[in-house]
Structures are given as structure tokens and as C-alpha cells.
Design goal:
Elements: H1 3-9, H2 12-27, H3 35-55, H4 59-104
């Protein structure tokens, strides 16, 4: 459920976890903090991320799908370019042969 959000966060996810730990530890100075309070904090954070994901209206999935299509198109263009370059070389050779044949006539 949160995979698209976590994919976008990527390297920032570790920073966010460290931030959550910092917040949790800093609360120990002002209130009693137990392992259960940390689990509750993480649960609340998960709910917030879920709401962000659902509020995006699938934009994340749509953008990821669009990016994949662009990458496929790039691969296809690269392949076609290589084929066109090879055919251009063959055409140049054939054109030269044709010109030489015309000179003989």
C-alpha cells in the first residue's frame, strides 16, 4: 500500500526513520516514553502516509507508469537509431557501387 510512497522517498526514507527516532527520543525529556508509545507513533506515521497516498489520487502510480513508458520509448529509439546507422552504412556502400556502375556505362 505504501510502496509507491516509499519508492519516491527512496534515500530519504532512512532520514525520515532517523527523524522519527530523534522525535521519539526527544519526547523522553518531557514525558514518559515506552516502546509502546514508539509503536503508536509509527502507527500514526503510517496512517499519515496512507492518507497522503490515497489523497494523491493515484498520481504516484500514474507518474511511475509514465516514466516507465518514457524509458521504453528511449530504448526503442536507441535500437532504431543503431539500425538506421547500420542501414545508412550499407546504403552508402550500395550507392557507391551504383555510381561506379553508372560510370562504366
Amino acid at each position: 500500500m505504501l510502496d509507491p510512497v516509499m519508492n519516491i522517498l527512496g534515500q530519504k526514507a532512512e532520514e525520515m526513520v532517523n527523524g522519527a527516532l530523534f522525535l521519539h527520543n526527544s519526547m523522553a525529556d518531557t514525558m514518559i516514553v515506552s516502546p509502546q508509545s514508539y509503536v503508536n507513533f509509527i502507527g500514526s506515521y503510517k496512517q499519515v502516509l496512507s492518507k497522503i497516498d490515497s489523497a494523491s489520487g493515484g498520481q504516484t502510480k500514474h507518474l511511475i507508469a509514465g516514466l516507465e513508458k518514457l524509458q521504453e520509448a528511449q530504448t526503442t529509439v536507441d535500437k532504431l537509431s543503431k539500425e538506421a546507422n547500420q542501414k545508412q552504412k550499407i546504403l552508402t556502400v550500395k550507392q557507391k557501387e551504383a555510381n561506379e556502375a553508372m560510370q562504366k556505362i
